[in-house]
Amino acid sequence: MNAERPRRPWHLVEARQREYFDLFGDGLVVVEPPRERAAPDSEEWRPPTGGAWIHLSADGSLRAFSGKVEVGQGTRNALRLVVADELDVPCERVELYLGDTDLCPWDLGTFGSRSIPDAAPALRAAAAAARELLLDRAATLRGLPRESLRYADGAVRLPGDGAALGFPELLQGVREVRSVREVLGKIPPPPWRRAGVSFVDSGAVDVVTGARTFVTDLRLDGMAYGAILRPSRYGAPLRRIEDSRARSLHGVVVVHEGDFVGVVAPTPWEASAALERIDATWGEADQPGEDEIEAYLRSHPAAEGGWDTDEHSVGDPKAALRRSAVSLEASYRTAYLAHVPLEPHAALARWDGDRVTLWVGTQTPFSTAQHVARALGLSVEDVRVIVPPTGAGFGGKHGGDVATAAARLARAAGRPVRVAFTREEEFRHGYFRPMALVDVAAGADREGRLTGWVFRNLNAGSAALRTPYRVTDQEVSNVLCASPVPQGSYRALGATANNFARESAMDELATRLGLDPVLLRERNLDDERLVHVLRRAAERAGWSTWVRTAGRGHGVAIGLEKGSRIATVAEVRVADDRSLRVDRIVSVMDAGAVVHPDNLAAQVEGAAVMALGGALFEAIHFREGRVTNPSLAHYRVPRFSDLPAVEVELVDHKEEPSAGGGETPMIALAPALASAIADATGVRLRSLPLLDDGKVPAPTLARTDAGHGG
Q1: What is the pLDDT of residues 144-183, one digit of tens each?
Q2: Alpha helices in 291-350, H assignment, sequence order
Q3: Which of 390, 339, 399 is nearest to 72 (CA)?
Q4: CA–CA separation, 86 vs 79, rounded Å?
Q5: What's the CA gap between 223 and 379, in Å, rounded?
Q6: How far is residue 653 CA from its own chain's centroid?
């Protein structure tokens, strides 16, 4: 369980003062340092941009270190491939350390589809510099001209008989730390010998057979189990507790520190029983219900200067709208969503003197360490966070609450303690994807060229807020609201809501103009890569040869986010009883240079399944500050019986930088489905989820002008 421990976390120590060789043996270390760093205990600590280090050992082993984490998205293998490509070794030979706050570069977190765009270039630079240093060392050792040597198959090849010098021959007795910037100028294009092709890791078998060890599987000698007392409703303050009955239980420790109340017991069941013996009185908290939420958000903007503001205005869009031949005004809505990771929040804490080590399923290990340090009055140097394999996050595993709880309870109990959310706790006491209200006004001339565009998002965030379409007169804005329920990051976050509203509005304009939706989009795009994925998706789906029949429809949508382009076509059937069947999804994705094709295709497929839930079924329901559907029996996620045929095509641009692949494929499915339903039924649905109690809302088969034009 990652026993290596330096004296101080390496991101706080200059590279040449780190114990690389004491922990891992003789060899060569190459560092790509972060670009900025602030005091470790500062609230204003700015994240480093990039950063990685690589250790090539005299025993032939190879270790790489990044601050990103693996939560099921396949980042580990993709990053190993990048290192393996530069050093021309099998991917299995690369041992990758991720998300260990003692050993890895400081990182803001694993979110926003930034793992490959940020971590891959840093690791590639370190590996490329290491390769050049090996060539330099071989030339020096053998007294040969540098240009007479070549590097291949993980070794330096000598002229003549082709003898090779590997890590053991080149690095025995060496303890050298170098910076990429001392070695390389401009990094040459990647060789793409191993990356960019299909690769199946042997560890994949462990995942599908259940052999992989996740946070909730970890055990330490003497470990106990913790549970947390929760408020009766959101925002309710704790007024009084009576815990004597819980304290009287054998082996139970009750911890009450400020607003925190928790218990430690020998088993999870005994911990739950102890919580039930605590009598707590909570204060009142006036909260709007679900039926009041839209009016509440519209009347409760958050304080100015929020975390995700964006405004953009060009020309006079209101005047342009008045001159438009065809115009549209509409409001679109998305619900609060739960993350529903396979593995709920979990953390295991162990104290060694005044220092705590935490094994946590988190997307933000370094900020989690800071959170724990502040809450417990520690130096951040005395908090180590290690992220083992984690059963998904989807943006829901930010923050340090579960880690802090485990650390508090372990300190009080004097033994290792694991805290794991129940599924109900995951629903009731996590945070949600923000609800969105999006107001759109759009206009076009008779040929389908956009003339005016006003787009206003309330509450969901600025991701994908700006339109990829060409329109001279436009105004877009994002208004943060004071949400009455906890909300935060989610896979694709506000991009799903913004793209749903924008692409739905484009389809509605197409209908009013009598134009084909694909043609309307092409006519207003300057981004050639976006046009290409649109055309490929339409071609692959047979858009131009579609035969209209009763109750069947197809819809298209595109999206541009995190540097990636996506186009999706959906085909649906609506029965006489209003039940919906999604028959087929075709997605074409352009994420620049593709490092791990199989994994990226799996990301697109997985995104389609996840987006299907948010588009058709998923919504958090709440009343008087309480979630009313806190279980999988009442919160509807996609089932195997819901899944259509999913076809994925990747556009590989080796000349372009790799872009994010995990979030962009989420954003085109909902508008494609809404348009397909409109095509099948004549009903234009503007709220997610699209279905009401599993059915398309009436009226259904009475055709209106909501179907496709052309």
Answers
A1: 999 999 999 999 999 987 799 999 999 999 999 999 988 8
A2: 293-299, 317-323
A3: 390
A4: 11
A5: 25
A6: 23
Q: With contact defined as beta carbons under 8 Å apart, do 321 and 452 qualify? A: yes
Are 29 and 54 in contact by the 8 Å Cβ rule? The answer is yes
Model confidence band, residue 310 (pLDDT cutoffs 50, 70, 90): confident
Q: What is the pLDDT of residues 80-114, one digit of tens each?
A: 999 999 999 999 999 999 999 999 999 989 998 88
User: ∠ CA 434-438-441 to the nearest 5 degrees?
Assistant: 170
- Residue 543 · residue 598 · CB < 8 Å: no
As a whole number of angstroms, the distance between CA 464 and CA 502 comes to: 10
Q: What is the pLDDT of residue 703?
A: 40
Strands (E), 253-301: 253-257, 260-265, 279-282
Per residue in 567-592, pLDDT (tens digit) is 999 999 999 999 999 999 999 999 99
Q: Domains along the chain?
A: 10-207 (3.30.365.10), 216-284+345-420 (3.30.365.10), 300-336+432-688 (3.30.365.10)
3-state secondary structure of 464: coil
485-522: per-residue pLDDT in tens? 999 999 999 999 999 999 999 999 999 999 999 999 99
Query: What are the DSSP E strand ranges found in 99-223?
Result: 150-152, 155-157, 164-165, 175-179
DSSP character string of 85-117: HHHT--GGGEEEEESBTTTS---S-S-TT-III
Other beta carbons less than 10 A from residue 324's beta carbon: 20
